[in-house]
Amino acid sequence: MENISLFDCHCDTALEIMRSGSSLYENSLHTDLSRGGKYEKYCQVYAIFAHDDFEENYRRSLTYLKGQLELHKDKVSLCRDTKDIAKAAMEGKCAAVISAEGAELLGCNIDRIEGAKAEGISSINITWNYENALSGTNAEATDKGLTEKGKAFVKKCFETKIAVDVSHISDPGFWDIAEMGHPFYASHSNSRAVCGHKRNLTDDQFKAIVDCGGIAGMNMYSEFVGENAKISDVIKHIDRFLKLGGEKNIAIGADFDGCDSLPEGIAGVQDMYKIYDELIRLGYGKELADDIFYNNAYRFYEKILG
Q: How many domains are contained in the chain?
């Protein structure tokens, strides 16, 4: 892994370590700083997420995560922009970025966006699986797009330099955001043409992401990769998006610690190099592999955060 860098756009590790009181540096989950730190450069986006008691659990998870970042500050830095990410890499540290998965964590309140930014939130999923005041989702109210409140909320995110994440949103909600003409991303979503799960992106949706200069993070959850998932199936999703002109728009969004099954051969962050190696073996080239694994996500965040 010495010559491989990894920028993972999504994991749910923050909730899991808070629940168990375990360490961000070393644990038995899918990802930790010890294993991720073996990559040449390692940036991890930690999603703050809750199934219920949204605002209380948002506060608890964020506080616990920040406490772990402070405890292990010799190994990791909280990063608010790409200058911070680059500085962490130069210092040999892991770079930690924080996202909020589901605007219900902020009460769907537009007045809390600037405060979230000040607390270190760099990205917001407009929805998780639950319909909220802003939009329907791929699991609930699937035909409901952005409400007027949702449009105002998304616009405020753009103005506040917070990345807007469309993973989990309804198809109509996706297109409402696309029509706003600002770069956005799907942090952990695969190709619906390869695996027909509604959580994945249609070809037209991915092309809209390409057109706006966004990215889609390849999700390792087997349910979104395909039946009896293997590394070769992950490559199929990458290849599909490449055929749609996505060389600069494919990233990694592994969904570690937010899923209960992974492709054969992938047990956690320590195994992600196998996908990189397979891309090289198949002749995709080092430049493309480096872009998918790190550079595309870095450039997207640079565009949004500075």
A: 1
Please give the structure tokens belonging to residue 73. Answer: 């500050």
pLDDT in tens, 19-45: 999 999 999 999 999 999 999 999 999
Domain enclosing residue 92, as ranges: 6-305
Asked if residue 83 belongs to a domain, the reply is yes
Residue 267 lies in a domain: yes
pLDDT tens for 223-259 read 999 999 999 999 999 999 999 999 999 999 999 999 9
Decide if 60 is inside a domain: yes
Buried b or exposed e, range 266-296, using 16+ CB within 10 angstroms: bebbbbbbebbebbeeeebeeebbbbbbbbb
